[in-house]
Every structure is written in structure tokens, then in C-alpha cells.
Design brief:
about 475 residues, five-stranded mixed sheet, Heat Shock Protein 90, 3 domains, alpha+beta
Length: about 475
């Protein structure tokens, strides 16, 4: 049977506490009742003793004063006449009183007997006294209702205080248990999310206790699992990419080689003007670019490094990438502006594999051209900024920017929202940046999207 944690915490503590409070309240109530009973008994005993030793006449006025002082009723029984009384007693009731046996010690047996007079019950005690040479018997009657009210008045305060203490203990225990189980429930909900594949860390804990430590530990676990999931997914993507590249490389290489030979044969057989030769050269470079792209795809899938890195002129590599992308930009009607490197004390050079960097820049340019296409005045700008530790190439477009659902994974393989896209361009750019110990980043600046590729000036000892 399932027992909630809240009940497991509250019930044992509440049971022990309630039993203790109940026992204390009962003891206090019993003690108060006994003290009230003893007080009344002493009061009646004092009255009877005072009557036993008195010689003054017991007139109705005297008896009324005694009743006001003691709370008891008095009936005087005389041998030859009806004595005074503080209550109306019929002849039959007086005869019943007269027949009651006189206790041996009235002071000790104030509540030994009870009697009913005029519909009310009384505790009975009596005392014999001498007055003017005769023996009178005085009946002292204490109302049973007054006696029980006095006991209740003495016993109820401890009971009420005990009940209030019980309620306070239960409320405090329930609040404490709710606070503990509430934290546990939040942690359980987060663990359920993690089990379902949602590795986002929860809110930082506001409490500094064991549950707070547990929450922080679960958040750390979620971060580690998220990183592990990304690594596993990336490994699977790269493996798939390698298999895809290996399968296509042979066919594409053969086709590109045949196309390049055909272009060379056409150039030799049909020499044309300078514009034709330029177009043929661009086509030949594009074929070489396809072969390089396929080879790089295979290397990325097999997690192989790029080729040899040298101190290359980054400005020249940027111009080559822009020339490769120019026909595509003209076809879509996008203006591509190449800014000259700023005049600085640092040359626009970097330790890099020129072919790999050209490929990365070409991918960024094609993405920027696609993004700008459709704008009222589509444009793409390329800039080079040299720094003391390297060079930064910035490619900006005035397109709408990346889709929100791709922002977190745009540099992962196969991440794309283009109907005809493969999602490999930015993944290759990220690979080139990592292989050169550089970085690639993006940001939205006003109505422009900027991608930056930073390459180091000094060689990386581990690259």
C-alpha cells in the first residue's frame, strides 16, 4: 500500500505529540477538578464546623447570608417546630431529610449522600447544634449542578489549551511536511522531464538545505546529460555524413573529372573571347570546388583533420570565395560588396588551410545570398578585420535571419529549414573553425544578420 511521504512524516510525530498533549491535558484537567472538589468540600466542612460551634439563632436572614457566602442551601430541623430554611421544602421532603442518617464526621463526608428537593439534586451534610437548651439539626445542601459547573470550569481550560496545542502541532507538522514534499515533487517532475529527453536545467533552488543541494545536483546531471546527448547526436550525424560522403565521393569525382575534361576540350577546340574564357575558368574552378567539397565531406564524416596549414593571405582567399559565389548572386539578383581590409599594423594573414577556409567562406556566402534573396534591396557585404591574435571575416546580409527553431542547433549536421537544403554548410564551417582552433559565431545587428569566422595568426600546436 502506497503511503505518501507527507503522511510518513506527519503521522508518527503527530501521534506521539498528540498522545503527550492529551495525557498532559487530562492530567491537568483531573488535577484542576480534584482541587475544585476539595475546595468545595473544605468550604462545606468549614460551614458545618462553624455551625456546630455556634450559639446564635439561625434566622432566615442569617441563613440567607450563609448561603450567599458558601453557595449552599440550609434547612434547620427542630424537635417541636418547623425551622428556618433557604429553600422551599415540603413536609414530605423535610421528613426525608430527617430520616437521613447523621454521618459520624460531617466534615469528612460532605458529599457522602445526595438528596432530591424540589426537583433538584443536592449533596447532603448535616450538623447538630445546641441552641437555648435544645438540639437542632442543620442540613447543609450543596447543589449538584453548581458542583459540576465548578468542576467543568476548572477542568475545561486545560482541555481547551491542549486541543489548541494539538491543532498547532498538526498545522506546523503539515506545513513542514508540505514544504519538504513540495520540493521532492518538484525534483521528481524535473527527473521525469529528463527521463523524457528534456535536459533543460530547472530553476535554481531558493532554499539552502539538503533539498536545495539535491536540486543543484539534478541540474548538474541534466547539463551533463544534455552535453552527452549532443555529443552522441553529433557522432551519429558525423558517422552518417561519412557514410553519405563515401558513397557519393566516387561517383561525383568521376562526373566532375569528366565535366572538367569536356570543358578543357571545348576550350581547345573552340577558342573564344575573354568573357567566354572567364566563364570556362569559373566553371572549371566550380568543378574543382565540388571535388574539394566532397573530399572535405568525407574527412568530416571520418573525423579526419584538414590538410597542411600555411601562412596564407586571407584577403586573397576571401576574393576567391567571392568570385565562386558571384554567379549565384547575379542569378538571384543579390548585390555582393567586398570591403578592402582596414589599414592596420597587422596584415590580413592567418595560419590556415586555404582550400578549407575558402570552402567555409563560400558556404557562408551562399547562405547569406539565399537569406537576402527576396528582400526589397538584397545585399551581402564581406569585411576583413585584423587583430593582434588573428583575423576576422564578417559576412552580413539584410535577410530575415535564422529561424527560431534552428538557432540552438544551426551548426549541427542536417540542421536546415530549406526545402532543398541538406543542412551541411554551417556544419562544415564549424568543423573548419574547430580544426583551425578558431571560432564561428553569428548575431543579429539591426536588420542585418552577421556571421563571423575568426582564424588565429599563430599556429595551434595541437591542430
Amino acid at each position: 500500500m502506497r503511503v505518501p511521504l507527507k503522511a510518513q512524516i506527519v503521522l508518527p510525530l503527530a501521534a506521539v505529540t498528540l498522545a503527550t498533549i492529551a495525557a498532559l491535558a487530562a492530567y491537568q484537567a483531573g488535577t484542576a477538578a480534584r482541587q475544585a472538589e476539595q475546595r468545595i468540600a473544605r468550604q462545606i466542612a468549614g460551614v458545618t464546623q462553624a455551625l456546630a460551634g455556634s450559639t446564635f439563632p439561625l434566622t432566615p436572614r442569617v441563613l440567607a447570608q450563609m448561603r450567599d457566602l458558601s453557595g449552599a442551601e440550609f434547612v434547620v430541623e427542630t424537635p417541636d417546630e418547623i425551622g428556618a430554611a433557604t429553600l422551599e421544602a415540603t413536609a414530605a421532603e423535610r421528613d426525608a431529610l430527617a430520616k437521613l442518617a447523621t454521618p459520624a464526621d460531617a466534615a469528612e463526608t460532605a458529599f457522602a449522600t445526595t438528596v432530591q428537593l424540589d426537583g433538584d439534586r443536592y449533596f447532603h451534610a448535616d450538623v447538630t447544634r445546641r441552641e437555648f437548651g435544645r438540639r437542632d439539626r442543620v442540613h447543609v445542601l450543596y447543589p449538584e449542578d453548581d458542583y459540576r459547573r465548578a468542576l467543568a470550569a476548572a477542568a475545561w481550560p486545560p482541555v481547551i489549551l491542549g486541543a489548541a496545542a494539538m491543532a498547532a502541532v498538526i498545522a506546523a507538522g503539515w506545513w513542514t511536511a508540505s514544504r519538504v514534499t513540495g520540493g521532492v515533487s518538484a525534483i521528481r517532475a524535473q527527473v521525469d522531464r529528463i527521463a523524457g529527453g528534456d535536459f533543460r536545467p530547472g530553476d535554481p533552488p531558493a532554499r539552502d538545505d539538503e533539498l536545495g543541494d539535491l536540486t543543484r545536483g539534478v541540474n548538474q546531471m541534466a547539463e551533463h546529460l544534455a552535453q552527452y546527448d549532443r555529443e552522441v547526436r553529433r557522432t551519429e550525424q558525423l558517422r552518417t555524413l561519412g557514410q553519405l560522403g563515401a558513397g557519393l565521393a566516387h561517383e561525383i569525382r568521376n562526373s566532375a573529372t569528366g565535366a572538367r575534361l569536356a570543358l578543357q576540350h571545348h576550350e581547345q577546340a573552340c577558342p573564344g573571347d575573354a568573357d567566354q574564357r572567364e566563364s570556362l575558368e569559373i566553371a572549371a574552378r566550380q568543378l574543382e570546388h565540388i571535388e574539394e567539397y566532397v573530399q572535405r565531406l568525407v574527412r568530416v564524416g571520418r573525423d579526419q583533420p584538414e590538410g597542411e596549414k600555411t601562412n596564407c593571405d586571407l584577403a586573397a582567399v576571401v576574393r576567391e570565395a567571392a568570385a565562386l559565389a558571384a554567379p549565384y548572386a547575379r542569378h538571384l539578383g543579390v548585390s555582393v560588396q567586398l570591403a578592402a581590409p582596414a589599414e592596420t599594423d597587422h596584415p590580413a594573414t592567418a595560419i590556415a588551410n586555404a582550400a578549407a577556409v575558402r570552402q567555409a567562406l563560400y558556404n557562408l556566402l551562399v547562405n547569406a545570398i539565399d537569406a537576402a534573396h527576396g528582400s526589397s534591396a538584397p545585399e551581402v557585404s564581406i569585411g576583413i578585420n585584423t587583430q593582434s591574435d588573428g583575423a576576422v571575416v564578417t559576412i552580413a546580409d539584410n535577410g530575415p535571419g535564422p529561424a527560431a527553431e534552428l538557432v540552438e542547433r544551426m551548426f549541427e549536421p542536417f540542421a536546415t529549414n530549406k526545402p532543398d537544403g541538406a543542412g551541411l554548410g554551417l556544419a562544415l564551417v564549424q568543423r573548419v573553425a574547430d580544426d583551425h582552433n578558431g571560432s564561428v559565431a553569428w548575431r543579429r545587428a539591426g536588420d542585418h544578420t552577421q556571421f563571423t569566422l575568426k582564424l588565429p595568426r599563430e599556429p595551434c600546436p595541437d591542430c
